[in-house]
Every structure is written in C-alpha cells, then in structure tokens.
Amino acid sequence: MRLHTLLGRLALPVAVAGLTTIGAAAPAHAAPEPAFPEVEVFIPDRIVTLDGRSKTVEFQVVNVGEEPAEGLSVRFTDDNGAPVPAAVGLTAPQGCTVDACAVGDLAPGADKSFKFTVTPTAGLPELGETLSIAVRGPGGDPISAAPFSVLRTDKGVDLELAGIKDVKLAPGGSATLPITVRNAGNETQDGVAVILAGEPFLSFPNTYSNCFTIDELFGVACAFDQPLGPDEVFTVSAATPLKVKVAADAPGPADYFMGAIATGLEEGSELGALAAAKRAPAGKSPLKLVPAGKQRSASAAGGELNPWDNVTSFFVKVSKNPADSVAVGATFAGAIGDTRTVKVGVRNDGPAATFGPLQGWVSFSEVTIPAGVELTKVDRDCIPAEDDLSIGGDLDGGQVSGRDYLCIAVQNLKRGEQALFSFTGRITAASPAGSVTVDGGPQDPKRSNDIAKIEVKLTSGGAGGGLPVTGAPTSLLATGGALLLAAGVFAVVTTRRRTA
C-alpha cells in the first residue's frame, strides 16, 4: 500500500476527531451566522457485500457548525429521494423506524453514531444501488445529504479491525493496545500489516524485528507474514504486547488522537518492500499474531472489499501536566532619539511542554509598547490588536499600527524554550512602562508571573541598546507560516469567547 493512500484512509477518523477537538476548544469567529445548522453525515461511500452475507455499517452525524443544532433526524432513501429498494436488504439502526432515525440535538462539534445493516438479495442490480442519508431539521427541512453505494460480489478479502477504546494515561505512562483483526471475506489474505498513527508526545516502543517507524504518521508499522483465512480472527500475542507510551513532558490535560489500520501485505507492495528493508537487527524477536478462533460473519472483485472498516481511531487521554508560562519583558534603554530593538514574549519554565494547536491551544503574548517609544518595525508574527480577528480578516503580521499587538507562537514550547518577538522603535520621551501579558491556559499553575514590564530607560549618552535577550524569535511567517498565524489567531479568539 502506498503511504499517501494510507494517509487518505486515515483522513475520515482524523477529520471527525478533529471536529470534536476544535468544537470543544475553539471558535466562534465573526463570520455571519449560517441560515441553517451545519450538520454533515460521515459514511463510507462504497459498501461491498459477499453473496449470502450481510454487512454492518457505522455512520456519524456531526455538527460541524458553530451553533447548536436542534430536533435533527436522518432519513434513508435512494438517490432520487424514494424509499430504499427492497433488494438492498436494509435493516435500520436500533431504535429507528424502517427508514428514519431521530438524532435529537447536537452541540457544536458534537456527533452521534448509528449502525445499520445491508443484506442484498440476488435482485440487486449488477452495478449496485446508490442510496442517501439525508439530515433534516425540526420541520423536515433538508440540511445535508451523504450518498453511498451498496454492491454485491462473489468473492474477496474483507479485513476488519476491531475498535479500540480510549486510553487514560499519566505523563510518562504506557499501555498495551488490544489489536484484533478479522477476515470477514471468503478468500485468504496472505499477509497482514498493522499500522498505528499518533501525534507528537506519543510513541510506540519498537522492540520487534518486524516493526518499523513511519515518521510521517508519528507511528509504527508491523508486518506479519502469515495467512489470515476466511472468518479467522487474529490478535496480538500477550507475549509480545504492542504498546503506546506518553512522553514525560506531554502537556495535559489533553486528548491525543490515535488511528490504527489493518491492511493486506501483498507481494510487491510498497509497504511490503519497506517492511523488508527496515527489518530490525537480528536479536530482536518478532511481534506475533495468534489465532483467536473463527467468527462466521452474519456480517461479513478480488482484493480488499471494504477498506473503510480496516480503520479505527481513539484518544489517549493524558492527565494534567503543568507548564509555567512566564512573561519575558525588556527595556528600551538609550537617549531620546535613539533607535533600539527589544525582544519580548513567553518562556516555559516547565516541567511539561506547553499546549499547542493539537491540544486546542496556542501560546500568545499581548504586547503594549510604552508611549515613549515610536515603533518603526514589528515582528512578523505579531498583528495589531485592533485588526479584524475574524476568519478572512486582515491577518498581515509585521505591520506597525498603534501600541497594542497580539503575538502568536504556533508551537509547543518545551521546558526552557522561549517564543520571543522583536520590536524596534525610536525613544521619544520618558513614559510609564508598557507590558507583555501571556496566557498559559489550564496548564499554567502560576499566574503571578504572567505579566512583565516593557520599560523606557533614558541614558545621558547614545551608547547602549535594548537589553540583551537570548532565545530564538519565532519566524513562522518568513517560512510560509501565514496560515499557521491565522490558525493561532483562530484559537486565541475562540479561547477568549469561551472564557467570556
């Protein structure tokens, strides 16, 4: 399997998980309110059944908007809005009528899952049937619809990966992941690979000869050169557990997304070649799959029939791990008329790393320059505080306008790291101090050091400059980081509104 295909297969659970995280952590921006609730259905676009077998399918109804959606329902139809043809053999989700389900109310970012079953008869057209799940509002008004097709074939492999429940861990902790793979098809799969994808601060201790790291996924892939016959179920041996580990400095409390996929290890595939090339040195034992019996499918072209149920996703829920965000001030020192540059911002005194965008937060600094300084240059990661912070607003960093600025550091800061922003100006007069204020969010255990002064100190001569400050200034915009800055402002605006 090509890695870009693997990334594509992981996209749906990532999208749904991301909607949940963003909905909880952020955003109502200043865009006009939608005329209708924004609710979408996420469902595989192609469902293939084997003759004589049924297939159970899960779909999610997700509120992707910023406003609550009330009194929702979904209805099953064909692609013309007519009732589902009998040849499809549709069994509606539990608690639903023959062709409709009450969803109820969904808060922004919330979702609700349903499962239905199809058991096509011989009367199903050769090219299958195209169906639709339509979302409706309280008065029956249509909101959105998701099409999908149901097909029938004679033979094939149909791998299924069992779901994995969320895992709760303390920073530095680890847990064994229950991996169970079933072949619901009627042909044998010659080899199987299991891939785990995570995010920063998660790792998979790789001590097995048949596993290798995939950096693009923050994950690991393990190849098993053993057949998986029809209706056979295999699980990872208890003697060779596959574990996920949380870094000791992982910011928390936070939910870390993980995805898992089981896929065929076909001869000549890219994944198979990678597995062969990256085998661990001799001396390491292999990760083992062991039979867990047979499970005949009441739910059960050649090749993999339904790749969508090879994938599952879950969260690693990490408990609180504090990070002390400390404001870093500075002084414009010199005579009237001198031009000086200072660097101000935030330093992380640990012990954990600070939250980042994947944890629904960004480190930001609110900067007020003293009145006795006439600015001539502003860091490119800072925007005037009066700028339009709505999505689509003017987010052009580095513009000199007034004395108040919002500076964004779109990264996790590890202990001892700083995000500093430069300001250059001409000293015009003595004046009260300005300030830099930081917000470390729920991680920050100490609020007394969240504000630091930005002072003007007049000297009799022209020697001297801004106080020396160490640390790497952020330069994300200079390297194509405009999108990241916009994302950071998006999160900041959300955080403010949630607090309000």
For this entry, give a set of tags:
disordered C terminus; Immunoglobulin-like; 3 domains; 32 strands; six-stranded mixed β-sheet; Ig-like_fold; 41% strand; 500 residues; transmembrane; mainly beta
Architecture overview:
InterPro entries: Ig-like_fold. Keywords: Membrane, Signal, Transmembrane, Transmembrane helix. This is LPXTG-motif cell wall-anchored protein. It comes from Pseudosporangium ferrugineum. The chain crosses the membrane at residues 476-495. The chain is built from four helices and 32 strands. The chain has three domains: 32-153, Immunoglobulin-like, CATH 2.60.40.10; 155-321, Immunoglobulin-like, CATH 2.60.40; 322-499, Immunoglobulins (Immunoglobulin-like, Sandwich), CATH 2.60.40.10. The two termini are 48 Å apart. It is 10% helix and 41% strand. The protein has a six-stranded mixed β-sheet with strand order 11-22-20-14-17-16, with helices on one face. A six-stranded mixed β-sheet has the order 24-32-31-26-29-28, with helices on one face. A five-stranded mixed β-sheet has the order 2-9-8-4-6, with no helix packed on it. With 500 residues, the chain is mainly beta. A hairpin with a 5-residue loop joins β8 (129-136) and β9. It has helices spanning 3-9, 11-25, 270-277, 482-499, and strands spanning 39-42, 46-50, 55-63, 69-78, 90-91, 100-106, 111-118, 129-136, 142-153, 159-161, 167-169, 174-176, 180-183, 192-197, 202-203, 211-214, 219-224, 232-236, 243-246, 252-264, 289-294, 311-321, 323-328, 330-334, 339-351, 363-368, 373-378, 382-384, 404-409, 418-427, 434-438, 451-458. The chain is elongated. The longest helix is centred in the last third of the chain and has 18 residues, at 482-499.
